[in-house]
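Chapter summary example.
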Amino acid sequence: MEPSLTTDRIAALEHRVAITELVHAYCRFVDLLATHELAELFTEDCVVDYGPGLGRPIEGREMLEAALARGLRRFAATSHHVSNVEITVQGDVASGTCYVLAWHKMVDGSPDAYLFGQYHDRFVRSDGSWKIAERRLLVAGESGFPVAWNFITRDKTTLPSGAAESDAHLPPGRSRPT
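The structure predicted for these 178 residues follows.
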């Protein structure tokens, strides 16, 4: 095997590991309510969209830190878990998707809330370190969050023959966006 090919493969693996560690750090800092450290994982000009029920997409690291400090204080505790991490690296830019399961204990004593979804991200590398430039949360299902989300939709052409989409996982009174 050519040395340059091996070096390229090792570099690609190092980038994927660094980005995966960045995604894990996001979960850790959310759960610790470490909003400054959390915001530092993003680029200065980041764009973050947690869904229409939580307001417009947030633009810029400073605005993100303020929004996180306000929003996360609603929870007495949280636990975020990511899996199925897929990353594509192209030079100093990467895209990625990972699944998220998040538990939220409410400060006001209302029932715990759960969210099942995906983070869709764009990452950039600057000065040797990866940052999140864009993040969009898409939700497959939730319980205990009475807000509007960006829901994951399924392409009906990919469903097995005879299968139909179901709204059974949506809260009562809600239907899948069209």
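To summarize the output: Confidence is low (pLDDT under 50) at residues 163-172.
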